[in-house]
Please model this.
Amino acid sequence: MKAFTDQELDTLTLVEGALALNAAIEPATSLHWVRAELELLAKEADHLLAGETNDELRLDGLLRLFYKEWGFKGDFEQYFSSDNAFVEKVLRRRKGIPVSLGAVFLFFAHRLDLPLQPVGYPTQLILKVNWLDREAQYINPFDGEYLSQRVLRGWLIGKEGPSAEVKPEYLASSDNATLIGRWLAVVKSALLREENYAMALRCSELALTFSPDDPYEIRDRGYIFQQLKCDWVAAEDYEYFIAQCPDDPAAELLKLQVKVLTAEAPIFH
Model:
Protein backbone atom coordinates (compact mmCIF):
# COMPACT_ATOMS: atom_id res chain seq x y z
CA MET A 1 0.00 0.00 0.00
CA LYS A 2 1.30 3.44 -0.92
CA ALA A 3 2.56 5.50 2.02
CA PHE A 4 1.33 9.09 2.20
CA THR A 5 3.52 11.67 3.87
CA ASP A 6 2.37 14.78 5.72
CA GLN A 7 4.21 16.88 3.15
CA GLU A 8 2.40 15.23 0.24
CA LEU A 9 -0.99 15.79 1.85
CA ASP A 10 -0.27 19.44 2.53
CA THR A 11 0.42 20.07 -1.17
CA LEU A 12 -3.15 18.98 -1.97
CA THR A 13 -6.48 20.50 -1.09
CA LEU A 14 -8.19 18.71 1.78
CA VAL A 15 -10.72 17.07 -0.53
CA GLU A 16 -7.98 15.89 -2.92
CA GLY A 17 -6.00 14.37 -0.05
CA ALA A 18 -9.10 12.66 1.25
CA LEU A 19 -9.94 11.41 -2.23
CA ALA A 20 -6.49 9.85 -2.60
CA LEU A 21 -6.91 8.04 0.70
CA ASN A 22 -10.50 7.04 -0.14
CA ALA A 23 -9.18 5.41 -3.31
CA ALA A 24 -6.55 3.54 -1.31
CA ILE A 25 -9.30 2.16 0.94
CA GLU A 26 -11.80 1.50 -1.86
CA PRO A 27 -9.98 0.88 -5.17
CA ALA A 28 -13.28 1.07 -7.07
CA THR A 29 -13.51 4.80 -6.32
CA SER A 30 -14.16 6.69 -9.56
CA LEU A 31 -11.48 9.38 -9.34
CA HIS A 32 -12.25 10.69 -12.83
CA TRP A 33 -15.95 11.18 -12.07
CA VAL A 34 -15.27 12.89 -8.73
CA ARG A 35 -12.79 15.33 -10.23
CA ALA A 36 -15.11 16.07 -13.14
CA GLU A 37 -18.06 16.66 -10.80
CA LEU A 38 -16.03 18.95 -8.55
CA GLU A 39 -14.85 20.92 -11.58
CA LEU A 40 -18.38 21.17 -13.00
CA LEU A 41 -19.76 22.51 -9.72
CA ALA A 42 -16.80 24.85 -9.26
CA LYS A 43 -17.41 26.37 -12.69
CA GLU A 44 -21.08 26.86 -11.84
CA ALA A 45 -20.14 28.59 -8.58
CA ASP A 46 -17.60 30.73 -10.39
CA HIS A 47 -20.14 31.71 -13.04
CA LEU A 48 -22.74 32.70 -10.46
CA LEU A 49 -20.58 34.28 -7.76
CA ALA A 50 -17.15 35.34 -9.00
CA GLY A 51 -18.50 38.69 -10.15
CA GLU A 52 -19.46 39.62 -6.57
CA THR A 53 -16.59 41.68 -5.12
CA ASN A 54 -17.82 41.62 -1.50
CA ASP A 55 -16.41 38.56 0.27
CA GLU A 56 -19.27 38.36 2.75
CA LEU A 57 -21.91 38.40 0.03
CA ARG A 58 -19.91 35.88 -2.01
CA LEU A 59 -19.71 33.53 0.97
CA ASP A 60 -23.44 33.90 1.66
CA GLY A 61 -24.05 33.09 -2.00
CA LEU A 62 -21.89 29.97 -1.83
CA LEU A 63 -23.63 28.79 1.33
CA ARG A 64 -27.01 29.25 -0.37
CA LEU A 65 -25.80 27.49 -3.53
CA PHE A 66 -24.21 24.55 -1.69
CA TYR A 67 -26.94 23.84 0.85
CA LYS A 68 -30.07 25.07 -0.93
CA GLU A 69 -29.55 24.88 -4.70
CA TRP A 70 -27.23 21.87 -4.83
CA GLY A 71 -28.91 20.22 -1.86
CA PHE A 72 -25.91 19.15 0.23
CA LYS A 73 -26.88 18.35 3.81
CA GLY A 74 -25.85 16.47 6.89
CA ASP A 75 -27.03 12.89 7.06
CA PHE A 76 -29.08 12.92 10.27
CA GLU A 77 -30.58 9.48 9.66
CA GLN A 78 -27.40 7.46 9.01
CA TYR A 79 -24.73 9.68 10.54
CA PHE A 80 -22.31 6.82 11.19
CA SER A 81 -22.61 5.22 7.75
CA SER A 82 -19.33 4.86 5.85
CA ASP A 83 -21.12 6.35 2.83
CA ASN A 84 -20.82 9.72 4.58
CA ALA A 85 -17.04 9.55 4.72
CA PHE A 86 -16.23 8.73 1.09
CA VAL A 87 -16.03 11.78 -1.18
CA GLU A 88 -17.54 10.05 -4.22
CA LYS A 89 -20.57 8.86 -2.28
CA VAL A 90 -21.03 12.26 -0.64
CA LEU A 91 -21.07 13.92 -4.07
CA ARG A 92 -23.52 11.37 -5.49
CA ARG A 93 -25.87 11.37 -2.47
CA ARG A 94 -25.41 15.05 -1.52
CA LYS A 95 -25.20 13.86 2.09
CA GLY A 96 -22.31 13.63 4.49
CA ILE A 97 -20.83 14.44 7.89
CA PRO A 98 -18.94 17.58 8.95
CA VAL A 99 -15.52 16.45 7.75
CA SER A 100 -16.64 15.33 4.28
CA LEU A 101 -19.07 18.19 3.66
CA GLY A 102 -16.54 20.66 5.02
CA ALA A 103 -13.78 19.40 2.72
CA VAL A 104 -16.03 19.65 -0.34
CA PHE A 105 -17.28 23.12 0.64
CA LEU A 106 -13.69 24.32 1.18
CA PHE A 107 -12.81 23.23 -2.34
CA PHE A 108 -15.35 25.66 -3.78
CA ALA A 109 -14.59 28.39 -1.24
CA HIS A 110 -10.92 28.38 -2.18
CA ARG A 111 -11.76 28.46 -5.88
CA LEU A 112 -13.67 31.67 -5.11
CA ASP A 113 -10.73 33.06 -3.08
CA LEU A 114 -12.79 33.12 0.11
CA PRO A 115 -10.81 33.28 3.39
CA LEU A 116 -11.87 29.94 4.88
CA GLN A 117 -9.74 27.38 6.71
CA PRO A 118 -10.56 24.02 8.31
CA VAL A 119 -10.44 23.68 12.08
CA GLY A 120 -10.20 20.31 13.80
CA TYR A 121 -12.40 21.30 16.73
CA PRO A 122 -12.50 18.63 19.49
CA THR A 123 -16.03 17.57 18.58
CA GLN A 124 -16.01 17.84 14.77
CA LEU A 125 -14.55 19.73 11.83
CA ILE A 126 -15.70 23.34 11.56
CA LEU A 127 -14.84 26.08 9.06
CA LYS A 128 -13.12 29.29 10.13
CA VAL A 129 -13.78 32.52 8.20
CA ASN A 130 -10.74 34.80 8.58
CA TRP A 131 -12.15 38.26 7.92
CA LEU A 132 -9.59 41.04 7.47
CA ASP A 133 -11.52 43.73 9.33
CA ARG A 134 -13.28 41.86 12.14
CA GLU A 135 -13.25 38.79 14.31
CA ALA A 136 -13.26 35.36 12.74
CA GLN A 137 -16.55 33.54 12.30
CA TYR A 138 -17.17 29.80 12.37
CA ILE A 139 -19.45 27.68 10.21
CA ASN A 140 -20.87 24.24 10.91
CA PRO A 141 -20.41 22.35 7.60
CA PHE A 142 -23.09 19.87 8.63
CA ASP A 143 -25.81 22.45 7.95
CA GLY A 144 -24.05 25.63 6.78
CA GLU A 145 -25.08 27.64 9.85
CA TYR A 146 -22.82 30.09 11.69
CA LEU A 147 -21.68 28.95 15.12
CA SER A 148 -21.81 31.10 18.24
CA GLN A 149 -19.35 30.79 21.13
CA ARG A 150 -22.26 29.52 23.19
CA VAL A 151 -22.89 26.63 20.81
CA LEU A 152 -19.18 25.81 20.57
CA ARG A 153 -18.93 25.68 24.37
CA GLY A 154 -22.10 23.61 24.55
CA TRP A 155 -20.54 21.01 22.28
CA LEU A 156 -17.48 20.86 24.54
CA ILE A 157 -19.60 20.52 27.68
CA GLY A 158 -21.34 17.55 26.07
CA LYS A 159 -17.95 15.96 25.40
CA GLU A 160 -15.83 16.98 28.41
CA GLY A 161 -18.24 18.03 31.16
CA PRO A 162 -19.62 21.27 32.67
CA SER A 163 -16.23 22.89 33.34
CA ALA A 164 -15.14 22.77 29.67
CA GLU A 165 -14.07 26.04 28.07
CA VAL A 166 -13.32 26.98 24.47
CA LYS A 167 -9.53 27.38 24.35
CA PRO A 168 -7.84 29.42 21.60
CA GLU A 169 -5.93 26.39 20.36
CA TYR A 170 -9.23 24.60 19.71
CA LEU A 171 -10.03 27.23 17.07
CA ALA A 172 -6.66 27.24 15.31
CA SER A 173 -6.53 26.19 11.67
CA SER A 174 -5.55 22.53 11.18
CA ASP A 175 -3.18 21.01 8.65
CA ASN A 176 -4.32 18.36 6.19
CA ALA A 177 -2.36 15.52 7.79
CA THR A 178 -4.09 16.04 11.14
CA LEU A 179 -7.52 16.20 9.56
CA ILE A 180 -6.89 13.19 7.33
CA GLY A 181 -5.79 11.22 10.38
CA ARG A 182 -9.08 12.00 12.11
CA TRP A 183 -10.97 11.26 8.90
CA LEU A 184 -9.32 7.84 8.65
CA ALA A 185 -10.39 7.07 12.21
CA VAL A 186 -13.99 7.97 11.33
CA VAL A 187 -13.92 5.77 8.21
CA LYS A 188 -12.41 2.85 10.10
CA SER A 189 -14.95 3.14 12.90
CA ALA A 190 -17.83 3.15 10.40
CA LEU A 191 -16.45 0.13 8.53
CA LEU A 192 -15.96 -1.80 11.77
CA ARG A 193 -19.54 -1.04 12.75
CA GLU A 194 -20.64 -2.39 9.36
CA GLU A 195 -18.37 -5.44 9.81
CA ASN A 196 -16.49 -4.60 6.61
CA TYR A 197 -13.21 -5.88 8.00
CA ALA A 198 -11.28 -6.05 4.73
CA MET A 199 -11.69 -2.31 4.11
CA ALA A 200 -11.22 -1.51 7.80
CA LEU A 201 -7.86 -3.29 7.58
CA ARG A 202 -6.84 -0.98 4.72
CA CYS A 203 -7.70 1.99 6.94
CA SER A 204 -5.56 0.62 9.73
CA GLU A 205 -2.64 -0.05 7.41
CA LEU A 206 -2.90 3.51 6.04
CA ALA A 207 -2.94 4.95 9.55
CA LEU A 208 0.22 3.01 10.33
CA THR A 209 2.02 4.63 7.39
CA PHE A 210 1.73 7.88 9.37
CA SER A 211 2.54 6.39 12.80
CA PRO A 212 4.16 2.98 12.25
CA ASP A 213 4.69 2.23 15.94
CA ASP A 214 1.37 3.45 17.35
CA PRO A 215 0.43 0.69 19.82
CA TYR A 216 -3.26 1.60 19.83
CA GLU A 217 -3.52 1.42 16.06
CA ILE A 218 -1.63 -1.89 16.12
CA ARG A 219 -4.06 -3.15 18.78
CA ASP A 220 -6.98 -2.16 16.54
CA ARG A 221 -5.34 -3.93 13.60
CA GLY A 222 -5.05 -7.01 15.78
CA TYR A 223 -8.79 -6.91 16.43
CA ILE A 224 -9.45 -6.69 12.68
CA PHE A 225 -7.11 -9.60 11.99
CA GLN A 226 -8.97 -11.58 14.64
CA GLN A 227 -12.29 -10.94 12.91
CA LEU A 228 -10.66 -12.06 9.64
CA LYS A 229 -9.63 -15.33 11.36
CA CYS A 230 -5.92 -14.49 11.13
CA ASP A 231 -5.44 -15.54 14.74
CA TRP A 232 -1.67 -15.72 14.97
CA VAL A 233 -1.19 -12.38 13.25
CA ALA A 234 -3.77 -10.88 15.61
CA ALA A 235 -1.91 -12.34 18.59
CA GLU A 236 1.34 -10.72 17.45
CA ASP A 237 -0.34 -7.31 17.30
CA TYR A 238 -1.89 -7.82 20.73
CA GLU A 239 1.47 -8.87 22.18
CA TYR A 240 3.06 -5.69 20.80
CA PHE A 241 0.37 -3.59 22.46
CA ILE A 242 0.78 -5.44 25.79
CA ALA A 243 4.54 -4.87 25.72
CA GLN A 244 4.21 -1.19 24.88
CA CYS A 245 1.25 -0.40 27.17
CA PRO A 246 1.45 -2.85 30.09
CA ASP A 247 -0.52 -0.56 32.42
CA ASP A 248 -3.41 -0.02 30.04
CA PRO A 249 -6.59 -1.67 31.38
CA ALA A 250 -6.99 -3.51 28.06
CA ALA A 251 -3.62 -5.25 28.44
CA GLU A 252 -4.84 -7.90 30.89
CA LEU A 253 -7.84 -8.76 28.74
CA LEU A 254 -5.65 -9.03 25.67
CA LYS A 255 -3.30 -11.42 27.45
CA LEU A 256 -6.25 -13.78 27.77
CA GLN A 257 -7.07 -13.28 24.09
CA VAL A 258 -3.49 -14.12 23.12
CA LYS A 259 -3.68 -17.40 25.05
CA VAL A 260 -6.88 -18.35 23.24
CA LEU A 261 -5.57 -17.32 19.82
CA THR A 262 -2.31 -19.21 20.16
CA ALA A 263 -3.73 -22.31 21.84
CA GLU A 264 -3.71 -24.30 18.61
CA ALA A 265 -0.49 -24.32 16.59
CA PRO A 266 -0.89 -23.29 12.94
CA ILE A 267 -0.68 -26.05 10.35
CA PHE A 268 1.52 -25.34 7.34
CA HIS A 269 0.87 -27.19 4.07
About this structure: Residues 31-49 form the longest helix (19 residues). Strands lie at 73-74, 95-96, 116-120, 125-129, 137-140, 145-147. The mean pLDDT is 93.
